[in-house]
Amino acid sequence: MSTFSAIDQDREIDREEFTPGVEPQPTWCPGCGDFAVLKALKGAMADIGRSPEEVLTVTGIGCSSKLNSYFGSYGFHTIHGRPLPVARAAKLANPDLEVVAAGGDGDGYGIGANHFLHSARENHDMTYIVFNNEIFGLTKGQTSPTSPMGHTSKTQPSGNAKSPIRPLSLALTAGATYVARTAATNPRQAQEIVAEAIEHDGFAHIDFLTQCPTWNKDAKSYVPYTDVQDSDEYDFDVSDHGEANAMMRTVEDKLYEGEILTGRFYVEDGRPSYGQKKREQGEMPAEPLAQRYFEDGEWERSIDFVKKHT
Amino acid sequence: MTQDDLVWRIAGGSGDGIDSTSRNFAKALMRAGLHVFTHRHYPSRIRGGHTYVEVRASDEPVRSRGDGYNVLLALGDSFARSTEDEAYYGNEKLKPLAENLDELREGGIVIYDEGMLDEDDVADLDLETRAEENDWHLYPTDLRGIAREHGRDVMRNTAGVGVTAALLGIDPSYFETLMGESMDGDILDANLDVLSDAYEQTQEWEFTHDLEVPDGETEGEQALLNGSQGIAYGAIDEGCRFIAGYPMTPWTEVFSIMSKHLPKVGGIAEQVEDEIAAAALALGASHTGAKAMSGSSGGGFSLMSEPLGLAEMSETPVVLLEAQRAGPSTGMPTKPEQSDLEHVLYTSQGDSTRVVFAPANAEECYEQTRRAFEVAYEYQLPAIIMYDQKLEGELRNVPVEFFDRETHPDPGTILSEDEIAEAAHHASGTFARFKRDAEKGISPRSVPGQKGGRHLTSGNETNEWGHICEDPENRKDQVDRRFSKFEHIAEDLAGDESLVTRHGPADADYGVITWGSQQGTVFEAVDRLNADGQSVAALGVSQIKPFPAPEIEAFIEGVDEVVVVEMNASGQFKGLVQKELGAYGEKLSSLLKYNGNPFEPREIVEAVENTAAGDRDAPDDATTFVPATGD
Ligand SMILES: Cc1ncc(C[n+]2csc(CCOP(=O)(O)OP(=O)(O)O)c2C)c(N)n1
Ligand code: SF4
């Protein structure tokens, strides 16, 4: 029996396989945008034919990070802001896994921003979904890095004096090879984008607009939205770094002016992912590291290295 | 102090090649059949700043740097700042000579670079008078001149080695061979010329000293290794195939060795953005079934506090290294201390479930790293190896056959897919990853990609299926299960003499307890005390958690008084002993040192002598003595 026989099973996948049979009913508030991400992810997995056991979801801490509690794959619910480094290593250690990292805007653009930049820069072959509700949900409504300027909360009673972070531009500048934004109110596009991101070879970043009706009452529920790929108004080349960059700035400005633009903003094919590069340099095996323990093959010993010290 | 050992000290500025020259010197003596041991002292500067390395050689095994030294090769600091800076920096050019004289033993030799040091400055040191008083033998030599004639100024160190070889009767061919192994072409030729010229010239002199390299014959082939290498090789043999880290002195050395060798054995090494990421990556790799490690030094380890807690809660095996240096904060980056004990034991929130080892020498670094992986992957928890800047860089000879070991290609407690199929599952097919009534507290483990093993793991408390759960009964059971592992770990480790090492007579009157890197020095001191008619035993503790209470208690019970020797200001290990045993405050005194230098055997000898004489003074200004509370 092979060690990782759940991987690459060639069969039809039903989205319901991703609903865990054990207890948890989502604890998300009614109307929370997070439900849409869960739904899109299940649909995307079925679309691309990934079975629950070959998928690893790694999340941080926050309402959104509970995603994998309600998603029946292998899952690691980690600590606030740190899903990316955990996910990166999981993918390096077992390149056959489909690795999806997820968390909130506080998680990913606040406490975990450093990891976000470096994961994008290194172009790891994985998908990163940020549930962007412009607020800290789980800790009850504090200002987040994506909250608009002037936004008031218990921790910013006089209003946010900081301008919001630009996650799409950041991802692009840092080196992500797939950058998209979708919204909870756009389930069809969301599922398509998630599926595309997972299939992309490289770091795929999705800024997923999710409304938080509980703490972000004045926030729009991200309607009406425009899908830039379906619109005649926006014409740019998703494979052109410069055009993508200009487009993203527009998109990021407009979000706070009430116009919601979604779609793929940058898609770069052909740049080798980090793992691929490392393999080409002979610094990383192609097989899962754990496989060798099970196969119990020839193991090099340190005594050969020690002999250099005689 | 044994008279048949030789301690050679090479001093200069950082950047003068002190490190490589001393390594070669030690290697040459090792190849000549001697036991060798090195001690490094260097400042936190890249270039310039006074630095030295000692090489101690003896026909008997050597465990510590010893007290003082008997041959000084003072190169002169070629990276010294101008003498106008003297008010602030002192005359650094002269430092390699001036700063080292206090510890030079009677009958010692001084070789200094006449080519670099001004005659007037040297005269100010009153060297001649001091030499007469101490029976020192001065051999001023124009090392720079010899180097210049055949090559470049930097080869002053080679010239110095040539002079030393001639003065001490070492066959220069050992050095020639070593040079041939590390360089070639013009550089090699020039160095060989410098070496032979210096050697020949010196041989013509009239020697006034009577020091010589002792004759020795070690058994079997020897390798010259430091603690960092011990750790890295132990990790590789135990099947570690993933490391992630961020540089920080003194942990960087292990990180570099692993980065070089891991890809050769099919592993992965990652330099990442910070230490939080580093530890988190190690967890990610481990989660998928790889044996993984990370590490850092004080400040970086502080950042790992959260991932460390995550490893405990999610029961993800991992090995973390903590290479201590003098703290708090960035403290003294290149100076040893043992003051992170409490940090390592207690950092991160909640009741901790981690295993902690503190090896005493290069061999123990190897053994205990293997042990750490074994325990971590058997019991699904983090294991931490604490060492320090002393062990990191101190070289000693270890028989090559010590490393002739089996590797351990074992996934630990990860089940095979067949075993997973047999294991407990929820009706929905979800695997009981955190089964509450598991044997030895170890619940079954699967890794992503395995069929039938699907589960969620979390930094939150979970139920048997890995789902977040705050049910009081579940919480209590899970905590009890995780804690129950310690009883079994303690059983597994009991009786391992490299973890709790007793030294000296069985019925001693006095005891010395130490932990980690000071063990060799303490054992040497205890040997001297017994040779001088005292009755003293020592206990070197390398197993910190689970705490080896029975062994330590028996040791304390067996002697009249105990001195606990450690390199920190607050007596952290003594505090731990009292906390764990709940007694003995009246019996334990502390000998502490925290000036940036490790203990010397004589300090321990004196502290025990004082104790035996009922005198509670510290042996010198560099150390502190804290009497037992019963005093
Ligand atoms: C180190 C650390 N700091 C703070 C917290 C508390 N905390 C939990 S979730 C969260 C922010 C949640 O906001 P976001 O990431 O935007 O996710 P959301 O709940 O909105 O989905 C914070 C600050 C924590 N768990 N860990
Ligand atoms: S608090 Fe907001 S983000 Fe959290 S579950 Fe409720 S609606 Fe969703």
Automatic annotation (TrEMBL), chain A:
<feature type="region of interest" description="Disordered">
    <location>
        <begin position="142"/>
        <end position="164"/>
    </location>
</feature>
<dbReference type="GO" id="GO:0016625">
    <property type="term" value="F:oxidoreductase activity, acting on the aldehyde or oxo group of donors, iron-sulfur protein as acceptor"/>
</dbReference>
<keyword id="KW-0560">Oxidoreductase</keyword>
<dbReference type="Pfam" id="PF02775">
    <property type="entry name" value="TPP_enzyme_C"/>
</dbReference>
<dbReference type="InterPro" id="IPR011896">
    <property type="entry name" value="OFOB"/>
</dbReference>
<dbReference type="InterPro" id="IPR051457">
    <property type="entry name" value="2-oxoacid:Fd_oxidoreductase"/>
</dbReference>
<feature type="domain" description="Thiamine pyrophosphate enzyme TPP-binding">
    <location>
        <begin position="61"/>
        <end position="208"/>
    </location>
</feature>
<dbReference type="GO" id="GO:0030976">
    <property type="term" value="F:thiamine pyrophosphate binding"/>
</dbReference>
<dbReference type="GO" id="GO:0045333">
    <property type="term" value="P:cellular respiration"/>
</dbReference>
<dbReference type="InterPro" id="IPR029061">
    <property type="entry name" value="THDP-binding"/>
</dbReference>
<dbReference type="InterPro" id="IPR011766">
    <property type="entry name" value="TPP_enzyme_TPP-bd"/>
</dbReference>
<dbReference type="GO" id="GO:0006082">
    <property type="term" value="P:organic acid metabolic process"/>
</dbReference>
<protein>
    <submittedName>
        <fullName>2-ketoglutarate ferredoxin oxidoreductase subunit beta</fullName>
    </submittedName>
</protein>
<dbReference type="GO" id="GO:0044272">
    <property type="term" value="P:sulfur compound biosynthetic process"/>
</dbReference>
<feature type="compositionally biased region" description="Polar residues">
    <location>
        <begin position="142"/>
        <end position="161"/>
    </location>
</feature>
From TrEMBL, chain B:
<feature type="region of interest" description="Disordered">
    <location>
        <begin position="441"/>
        <end position="471"/>
    </location>
</feature>
<feature type="domain" description="Pyruvate/ketoisovalerate oxidoreductase catalytic">
    <location>
        <begin position="15"/>
        <end position="200"/>
    </location>
</feature>
<dbReference type="InterPro" id="IPR002880">
    <property type="entry name" value="Pyrv_Fd/Flavodoxin_OxRdtase_N"/>
</dbReference>
<dbReference type="GO" id="GO:0047553">
    <property type="term" value="F:2-oxoglutarate synthase activity"/>
</dbReference>
<dbReference type="GO" id="GO:0006979">
    <property type="term" value="P:response to oxidative stress"/>
</dbReference>
<dbReference type="InterPro" id="IPR019752">
    <property type="entry name" value="Pyrv/ketoisovalerate_OxRed_cat"/>
</dbReference>
<dbReference type="InterPro" id="IPR033412">
    <property type="entry name" value="PFOR_II"/>
</dbReference>
<dbReference type="InterPro" id="IPR050722">
    <property type="entry name" value="Pyruvate:ferred/Flavod_OxRd"/>
</dbReference>
<keyword id="KW-0560">Oxidoreductase</keyword>
<feature type="domain" description="Pyruvate:ferredoxin oxidoreductase core">
    <location>
        <begin position="508"/>
        <end position="583"/>
    </location>
</feature>
<dbReference type="Pfam" id="PF01558">
    <property type="entry name" value="POR"/>
</dbReference>
<dbReference type="InterPro" id="IPR029061">
    <property type="entry name" value="THDP-binding"/>
</dbReference>
<feature type="region of interest" description="Disordered">
    <location>
        <begin position="611"/>
        <end position="631"/>
    </location>
</feature>
<dbReference type="Pfam" id="PF17147">
    <property type="entry name" value="PFOR_II"/>
</dbReference>
<dbReference type="GO" id="GO:0044272">
    <property type="term" value="P:sulfur compound biosynthetic process"/>
</dbReference>
<dbReference type="InterPro" id="IPR022367">
    <property type="entry name" value="2-oxoacid/accept_OxRdtase_asu"/>
</dbReference>
<dbReference type="Pfam" id="PF01855">
    <property type="entry name" value="POR_N"/>
</dbReference>
<dbReference type="GO" id="GO:0006082">
    <property type="term" value="P:organic acid metabolic process"/>
</dbReference>
<protein>
    <recommendedName>
        <fullName>2-oxoglutarate synthase subunit KorA</fullName>
        <ecNumber>1.2.7.3</ecNumber>
    </recommendedName>
</protein>
<dbReference type="InterPro" id="IPR002869">
    <property type="entry name" value="Pyrv_flavodox_OxRed_cen"/>
</dbReference>
<feature type="domain" description="Pyruvate flavodoxin/ferredoxin oxidoreductase pyrimidine binding">
    <location>
        <begin position="234"/>
        <end position="477"/>
    </location>
</feature>
<dbReference type="InterPro" id="IPR009014">
    <property type="entry name" value="Transketo_C/PFOR_II"/>
</dbReference>
